[in-house]
Design brief:
single chain; alpha+beta; six-stranded mixed β-sheet; elongated
Length: 118
């Protein structure tokens, strides 16, 4: 009885229903389903070179940082890292355009990695 990944109320309800059918008490089933939802929200894939789509959280194998993608990388852009508001931001400056945040960096020792790429 594998539980579904996701944090929508529909997914949580279906997971609770499945757990109750398999013999768990309703409070225990709810606790397990909500824990699974939190795990899905915080899922971080480990990908080659830390590459991933905009909106994803990725980590390069052996890397020190989780990258939360805000914009797609661009080979023509120049990159630099700044600290602002207690966060490290990977900035991207495209020729002739303004500077934008490419990703938010978080040290891996402060984040639990739940899911690895297959």
């Amino acid at each position: 009885m594998p539980l579904k990944s996701g944090s929508s109320q529909e997914t949580i309800s279906k997971n609770i229903e499945e757990l109750v059918k398999s013999g768990h008490e309703s409070k225990q089933a709810a606790a397990i389903a909500y824990a699974k939802a939190r795990e899905s929200d915080n899922a971080i894939e480990i990908t080659k070179g830390g590459k991933g789509p905009v909106g994803s959280k990725v980590k390069a194998p052996g890397g020190d940082y989780i990258h939360e993608r805000k914009a797609a990388p661009d080979k023509k852009a120049k990159y630099f890292t700044i600290q602002k508001g207690g966060k490290e931001l990977r900035m991207m400056k495209k020729p002739g355009e303004s500077t934008e945040v490419q990703s938010v960096l978080t040290k891996t020792n402060s984040v639990k990695v739940y899911r690895k790429a297959k």
